[in-house]
Amino acid sequence: ELQHLASGRYWGDPAAPGSDNSDPLPAILDFKAQLDKAGVELLVVPVPAKAAIYPDKLTASLPASPSTPANLAEQDAAFIEVLKNNGVGMLDLTEDFLKARGEGLDTHCRTDTHWSPEGIRIASEKIAALVSQYPWAREQTRIPYSSESTEIQIRGDLAPADGALEKLPARRVTQTGTADSRTSPVVLLGDSHNLVFHSGGDMHTTGSGLPDQLGLTMGFPVDVVAVMGSGSTAARRSLARRKDNLAGKKLVIWCFSAREFTQGQGWAKVQVEIGRAHV
């Protein structure tokens, strides 16, 4: 994450090698072009780096937010503007997370590399507000969900094996109605930020992850295509392996750690085999 934040400008460099897939811009624009051809919207949601929200945790010489002088997410913000200028739907959560931190909320886990249930809740509400603007979303059949406030305990991947468990407030969601997520008009694509607190096991628990919170805030489930590891090329390859040309889909929410822009497994172009006849 720190290597990413220190990388400087990382896209559109004409001096960079053309075959190492290090530049995320061509791959993202290629994916958008495929979706455009199929009439499917794209919303990219980079999860802000923890160090960009809590830079004062890196050194005692920095004051706590909002007085922190260094903007460690400056290059990410610049790249987001480049993507916006190329017609890509973007949601930058940095300011929302900084505001939440100022209100005493933890947007990231203290002992884990992932965002926290509170960060996920904030993101889900911002995403749902954007999705609600689409006419097809307003016409989507709603199903009932219930939720309850709870506390979960985790041993994060940054914690020692014999360390104390981290306690986190969470909103646990239960889908009380019947709906098949596979037929949802919305695909949630990306890395383990879409699985944490949702899929259980190494991802800690179920019912409190981004798919759950989106179901609650939007009123219908999402079709999850997420991988453990890189949410850039590997996630799109998982989508391509379905060979269904995103039939019936209206929106792809592509959510992954911002560090993927430079520290993932590369940004190869992936043919997702999308055509209008299959939508």
Can you give me a brief rundown of this structure?
The chain has 279 residues and is of the alpha/beta class. It has helices at 2-5, 24-38, 50-53, 74-85, 94-102, 117-131, 135-138, 210-218, 233-240, 260-263, and strands at residues 41-47, 89-90, 145-154, 166-175, 186-190, 223-226, 251-257. It has ten helices and seven strands.
- The assigned structural class equals alpha/beta
Q: Could you spell the SSE succession in H and E letters?
A: HHEHHEHHHEEEHEHEH
Low-confidence stretches: none
Number of strands: 7
Taking the sheet with the most strands, its summary is: 5 strands, parallel
Strand order of the largest sheet: 2-1-7-5-6
DSSP strand content = 15-25%
Whole-number average pLDDT? 91
Principal-axis shape equals globular
Distance between the termini: 38 Å
Indicate the percent of residues in helices.
25-40%
Number of helices: 10
- Rg estimate, integer Å: 19 Å
List key phrases describing it:
single chain; alpha/beta; five-stranded parallel beta sheet; two-stranded antiparallel ribbon; 10 helices; 30% helix
Overview of the structural elements:
The protein is an alpha/beta fold. Helix content is 30%, strand content 16%. The chain has ten helices and seven strands.
